[in-house]
Design brief:
Length: 147
Amino acid sequence: MDNSLKSELLHALFLLKNLNYQRFRRWKIDMNMPAFAFLKQLQVREDKGEIGGAWISEMKDYLCVSKAAVSQMLGSLEKRGLVTREPDPENRRTIIVKLTEAGRETIDQYDRSFDNFIGILAERFGESDTREIIRLIHKFAEISEEI
């Protein structure tokens, strides 16, 4: 593959990443994407009935950040009233992190905005191109996993 094509692919990937950041700013979600991903993951776990703090150490790998960054993020989210932390009564060495109502409202706001955004994208691309994009994203993910 020639270098200009590789460069174009890299540019396209950065463009997608930057669009994600711009969307967060446009939707007035006052946090970075890793912090939002943390909230979303917490919501998914709570909705499944999973509680406890052991999974927090897994978040550093999921978010591609350090353990200290997860701890700092958690402190920031707690200060903003989006999560609470309490000791796990069954294991005092771990903590239980829970979403607050404000945390759930933040996620709901983003989800509504994102749902609208996806609807507009799918409408403008049309069914055929939307299916092709989905296919290519899955292929990209599979190849990335193999490398």
